[in-house]
Amino acid sequence: MSQAIAVGAFAAVPERETFGLTGEQRRNLALASLGSLLEFYEFMVFGFFTVLIGKLFFPPDLPEAVKTFQAFALFPWDFYCGPFPAR
Question: Is residue 48, in this structure, part of any structural domain at all?
């Protein structure tokens, strides 16, 4: 059973019982963290190469700012098209 903590104004607050994570929960947490890390890495690399993508894939007569903006406009397509191959 839980006992009351006798510390100042919190004397009536019962002590919470703590439980650790199970092995499956730790595994799920580690895999979810790894997936988030890889997703962040992918978008970070895309952000670094945006200027290069703009120079290689868009017409050379466009201003650099327009090419960079168009390359950044491709960024959300990964959110929309990313899940389709998983079907």
Answer: yes
Domain that includes residue 78, residue range: 22-82
pLDDT in tens, 2-43: 555 555 555 565 666 667 888 899 999 999 999 999 988 988
Full-prediction pTM beyond 0.85? no
CB 53 within 8 A of CB 68: no
How far is residue 44's CA from residue 37's CA, in Å, rounded to a whole number?
10
Token pair in block for residue 62? 């466009």
Residue 80 CA to residue 22 CA, distance in Å, equals: 34
